[in-house]
C-alpha cells in the first residue's frame, strides 16, 4: 500500500503538466497568429497566457479540492483591511466573511485574470468591498496610491502564491511591513518535502513544473515566512505529515509581534 501511495504521489504532478502543455501550444499558436515570428521574442508573454488559461480552466477543480482542506476556514478568519496576494482566478473571493471585512485589495501582477475576478466580484455584489490591483506587492507607488502602506493592513492572505513569486524573502518582508502590529498573515502553501525520496522526485519534477505550471515545487517556504520578521505564534504553523506528496502543505495564521 505504501508503494502505491508513493507512486501516486510521484506521478501526481502530471495531472497539471499535461493540460499545461496543451495550453502552451495553444498560446503559442495564438501569439504567432497575432504577431508572427516576432512573438517568439517574448516567450514570457506566451507562458503567462498559457498558465493563466490553465488556472482559469481548472479553477472549479481547485475550489472543490480546497473545500476538503483547511483553506475555507483560513480565508474566513481574514478581517478588517485585507490584502490578498495573487488572487489569480479569484478562487478565494466567495470565502471571505463579509461581516468582518472592511475592504479587500487583490494584488495580482498578471492582467489575464482581470475578467475572471471582475465577474466573480460582480456576481457576489462586492464592487464596494473589493478592488483588483494589477501589480506586485513590490510596486510601492501603486500600493501607496491606494493607502496600502507600512502598518496599515489588518490581514494579508496568501493561498498557494509564494511558490510562484520571484523573491519569496522580499515578498515576505513586504508582507510583514504592511501588517499592523497584531495583524494576521493567513497562508496555505506547498513546500519541500522532508521525505528524502519524495524530495528527490520534487527536484526531478521542478524544472518542468516551473516552466509549465509557473511555480517552484520545492522551496523552503516555512523558513522564508519565519525570517520575514518577529511573529507572536510561530509554533502554531501546521506542517502536513504527507511524506508521499510532491505538494505537501504548510498553513497557519501568524500574528505580527507588537513592538
Automatic annotation (TrEMBL):
CDD domains from the UniProt entry: AdoMet_MTases
Pfam family, one: Methyltransf_23
Superkingdom, natural source: Eukaryota
InterPro entries: SAM-dependent_MTases_sf, Thiol_S-MT
Record-linked PANTHER family: METHYLTRANSFERASE LIKE 7A (PTHR45036:SF1), METHYLTRANSFERASE LIKE 7B (PTHR45036)
Protein name per Swiss-Prot or TrEMBL: Methyltransferase type 11 domain-containing protein
The species this protein was found in: Aspergillus wentii DTO 134E9
Amino acid at each position: 500500500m505504501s508503494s502505491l501511495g508513493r507512486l501516486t504521489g510521484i506521478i501526481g504532478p502530471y495531472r497539471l503538466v499535461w493540460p499545461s502543455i496543451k495550453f502552451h501550444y495553444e498560446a503559442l499558436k495564438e501569439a504567432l497568429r497575432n504577431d508572427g515570428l516576432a512573438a517568439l521574442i517574448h516567450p514570457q508573454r506566451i507562458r503567462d497566457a498559457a498558465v493563466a488559461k490553465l488556472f482559469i480552466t481548472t479553477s472549479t477543480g481547485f475550489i472543490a479540492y480546497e473545500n476538503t482542506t483547511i483553506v475555507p476556514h483560513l480565508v474566513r478568519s481574514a478581517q478588517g483591511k485585507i490584502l490578498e496576494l495573487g488572487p489569480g482566478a479569484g478562487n478565494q473571493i466567495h470565502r471571505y466573511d463579509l461581516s468582518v471585512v472592511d475592504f479587500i485589495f487583490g494584488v495580482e501582477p498578471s492582467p489575464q485574470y482581470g475578467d475572471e475576478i471582475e465577474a466573480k466580484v460582480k456576481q457576489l455584489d462586492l464592487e464596494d468591498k473589493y478592488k483588483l490591483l494589477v501589480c506586485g506587492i513590490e510596486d510601492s507607488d501603486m500600493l501607496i496610491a491606494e493607502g496600502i502602506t507600512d502598518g496599515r493592513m489588518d490581514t494579508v492572505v496568501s493561498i498557494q502564491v509564494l511558490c510562484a513569486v520571484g523573491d519569496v524573502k522580499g515578498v515576505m518582508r513586504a508582507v510583514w511591513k504592511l501588517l499592523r502590529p497584531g495583524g494576521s498573515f493567513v497562508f496555505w502553501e506547498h513546500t519541500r518535502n522532508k521525505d528524502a525520496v519524495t524530495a528527490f522526485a520534487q527536484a526531478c519534477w521542478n524544472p518542468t513544473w516551473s516552466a509549465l505550471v509557473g511555480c517552484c515545487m520545492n522551496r523552503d517556504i516555512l523558513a522564508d515566512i519565519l525570517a520575514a520578521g518577529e511573529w507572536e505564534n510561530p509554533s502554531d504553523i501546521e506542517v502536513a505529515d504527507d511524506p508521499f506528496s510532491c505538494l505537501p502543505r504548510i498553513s497557519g495564521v501568524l500574528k505580527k509581534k507588537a513592538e
